[in-house]
Amino acid sequence: SAAANYDSAANVGDLSACTFKKYGCTNSTAFNYVSWATHGPDEFSADYPLLTNPHTCVPTVVGCMSSLALNYDSASNVNEGCLYFNEDLEELLASLAAAAADGRRGRRLADLDYDY
Questions:
Q1: Mean pLDDT of residues grouped by 10 in the chain (116 residues)?
Q2: Which of 55, 106, 109, 111 sits CB 3.0–4.6 Å from 99 for a disulfide?
Q3: Rounded Cα–Cα distance for residues 30 and 78 (Å)
């Protein structure tokens, strides 16, 4: 009875006539979307109520996945938009910290050529 079109009255055991359910996340915006799935998580839970559902859809969370970045987001599952320190930015921050320590004004941001 695993086939979606199971018929208990059938008298020929021809598996080629069977249509089997293909479970998976059917939400196209989810991180774990399965394009070939014919049945979603709700159908799996209904068919197998005692099993843990491995097909639950996971929301897509876009963010920086690099723990070395300034804007690291541990909840992200799609990597995008990481910002890293670079030498000029480090120089700017050091200059501002030194200026703050002795009451001077640090280098202006416009004085530096940097990428981010």
A1: 70 75 92 92 90 91 90 93 76 73 53 49
A2: 106
A3: 11
